[in-house]
Amino acid sequence: MSVTLRDSFGRSIEYLRISVTDRCNFRCRYCMPAAGLEWLPKSDILSYEEIAQVVRELSPLGLRRLRITGGEPTLRPQLELLVGMLRSIPGIEDISLSTNGVRLPELAGSFREAGLDRVNMSADSLRPDRIRQISRRNIDFDPIAAATAAEQAGLSPIKINVVVMRGINDDELSDFARLTIEREWHVRFIELMPVGEMRELTWDHVVPSEQVLRQLEEIAPLEPAAGPARGNGPARYFRFANARGTVAVITPMSHTYCGSCNRVRLTADGRLRTCLFGDDEVDLRSPLRAGLPLEPFFRSALSSKPKEHHLLQMQVGGLRALSQVGG
Ligand code: SAM
Ligand code: SF4
């Protein structure tokens, strides 16, 4: 008989986002302060073997899909070892990676060989000067080359996530969207969220998704689309006629997807978070290091998974940055 881990609202939990580090080589203006954050001590961070153990104990309870995230996960040395360990766990059908893409050209091949299925790459601009301005890093980075490297390594589908900020990158929406005409890429426009370090960004920078869609319709008519086969989560997908890829909007500010939320998060220091926006966490690291079975801790965490988040009622800056909780 198959067992399913359900929360108190009947949602089955089959998707785990695993943060492997809170550190990052970028300082995106909507995510981290310029000086960085107070980093977790190394001894608090779960080893690859500990992460794999959590997944081994969750997979018989219905866990099917994993996402490796951070911080910037590719900063963790030999991340392909973790990918390989997770790949060998029975029941895991899909492993994806969230990354800013900077290290994809050198690492995509080894990730694919180790068993990574696909990648979500964040890219908020295609213009070198603006990439430096948003990331606060003096780098030469070409997101198109990075996504191409991932595609050539066989990672599929390729999703590109763009956080839309009024007056900062909203004049590039059509450049991003046009990529989907020739390439089988899926460009997803995300509403800016009032979490973490947003002192420079205000509600005025938030561009509602409906406005994004209106801007895209000026390129050519959009038709609703099914989206790529795997891992569509809360995005709404559309396609230009004859385009190879899709465009999508993700509206975290509305409650529309809490009812079908099937995900939980593991922080880099081994806490299980049942909602991205909220403070409910259950410590798994202590029982793990004490050699205790984890199932009772999973069940206790799930019993407190909230019905929905209350982001709209919260103060800007009142929540932890996504880099700290594995966004
Ligand atoms: N470093 C990786 C990356 O950037 O893809 C993975 C971690 S990052 C925290 C995960 C996602 O969260 C990225 O797509 C990023 O753009 C998004 N994100 C972070 N802060 C955000 C905010 N305030 N509003 C909307 N999206 C945010
Ligand atoms: Fe780093 Fe990703 Fe946060 Fe940007 S969004 S600072 S790349 S963790």
Give a written overview of the molecule.
There is one protein chain. Helix 6 links the parallel strand 5 (158-164) and strand 6 (185-191). The protein has helices at 48-58, 79-87, 104-114, 128-135, 143-152, 173-182, 209-217, 285-289, 295-303, 322-325, and strands at 15-19, 65-69, 94-99, 118-122, 158-164, 185-191, 222-224, 236-240, 246-250, 263-266, 271-273, 281-283. Helix 1 (48-58) runs parallel beside helix 2 (79-87), helix 2 (79-87) packs parallel to helix 3 and helix 3 packs parallel to helix 5. It has a domain at 15-168 and 258-324: Aldolase class I (TIM Barrel). It is globular. Strands 7-8-9-6-5-4-3-2-1-10-11-12 form a 12-stranded mixed sheet. By secondary structure, it is of the alpha/beta class. The longest helix is centred in the N-terminal third of the chain and has 11 residues, at 48-58. Bound molecules: S-adenosylmethionine and iron/sulfur cluster.
How widely separated are the two ends? 33 Å
Count of alpha and pi helical runs: 10
Taking the sheet with the most strands, its summary is:
12 strands, mixed
- Which CATH-level-2 architecture of one domain? Alpha-Beta Barrel
Q: What is the CATH topology of one domain?
A: TIM Barrel
Which structural class is indicated by helix and strand composition?
Answer: alpha/beta
Keywords:
binds iron/sulfur cluster, 327 residues, twelve-stranded mixed sheet, globular, alpha/beta
